[in-house]
Amino acid sequence: MPVHARHYREPALLRSATGPDAEALMSWFADRDACKLWGGPAFRHPFTPASFAEDMRFASLAGYALTDVNDTLLGFGQIYPKLQRIHLARLAIRPDMRGTGLGKRLIGEIITAGQKLFSLRDSSLFVYRRNAAARHCYSRMGFVDAAWPDRDRVLPDCQFMIRIEAVTAQDPEFI
Ligand SMILES: CC(C)(COP(=O)(O)OP(=O)(O)OC[C@H]1O[C@@H](n2cnc3c(N)ncnc32)[C@H](O)[C@@H]1OP(=O)(O)O)[C@@H](O)C(=O)NCCC(=O)NCCS
């Protein structure tokens, strides 16, 4: 089915992630490679509930759940401040809902939450170059390829991307 064939038009709500959300996420990655594409090269697989929570740094990062009106989990992502930007990590949409526009909604909502939480405007993320669905989604959300951050260990298969918000007349920085 073409990725454009279905579009999720119902309300989708963002809230802070909880332990049961992390447990639900464990069923979203079918194999080691899917897990690595999402969680990064050091993510252990097969995982246990404890290793999963530890490798995703569940306790230490701000995590968000995108849900439907019945609080069923549709998407997940984490943020932390990095180089004066909101850094997005471990973004995922429930497997049966991918390609319905929820990834774009998740990213938009998480950036808005991060702007409030960290008082930052721009955002960044890492992505595997071969992750075509994620790369397409991120570029549609305004992310562009950027130079690898100096202090990070180089991962040759991955790309650093940033999104710079337009300065508007309402911004304090507008001259
Ligand atoms: C990456 C991910 C979050 C994107 O979410 P999504 O809900 O599938 O994305 P959307 O439906 O919002 O689609 C966004 C754009 O990407 C396109 N797209 C979606 N799936 C695609 C695919 N498999 N190949 C190419 N493009 C794709 C859509 O057509 C849409 O483009 P458009 O705006 O031009 O129509 C989701 O695919 C996912 O959970 N992947 C597994 C986990 C993962 O790899 N996370 C990334 C970690 S860096």
Which ligands appear in the coordinates? coenzyme A
What is the second-level CATH architecture? Answer: 3-Layer(aba) Sandwich
* Whole-number mean pLDDT: 95
Radius of gyration: 16 Å
CATH topology: Aminopeptidase
Name the CATH superfamily classification.
Answer: Gcn5-related N-acetyltransferase (GNAT)
Structural class: alpha+beta
**Care to count the β-strands?**
7
What is the end-to-end distance? 48 Å
Strand content bin: 25-35%
Number of helices: 5
Number of domains: 1
Q: Uncertain spans, ≥5 residues at pLDDT below 50?
A: none
Percentage of residues assigned to helices:
25-40%
Biggest sheet overview: 7 strands, mixed
What is the overall silhouette?
globular
Helices and strands, in order, run as EHHHEEEHEHEE
CATH hierarchy class name = Alpha Beta
Q: Biggest sheet, strands in spatial order?
A: 1-2-3-4-5-7-6
Structure write-up:
This protein is an alpha+beta fold and 175 residues long. The protein has a single domain (13-163), classed as Gcn5-related N-acetyltransferase (GNAT) (Aminopeptidase). It contains five helices and seven strands. The chain has a seven-stranded mixed sheet, sandwiched between helices. A hairpin with a 5-residue loop joins strand 2 (62-67) and strand 3. The longest helix has 17 residues, at 102-118. The chain is globular and about 50 Å long. The chain starts with 12 loop residues before the first strand and ends in a 12-residue tail after the last strand. The mean pLDDT is 95. The structure holds coenzyme A (COA). The site of coenzyme A (COA) has 22 residues, from helix 2, strand 4, helix 4 and helix 5.
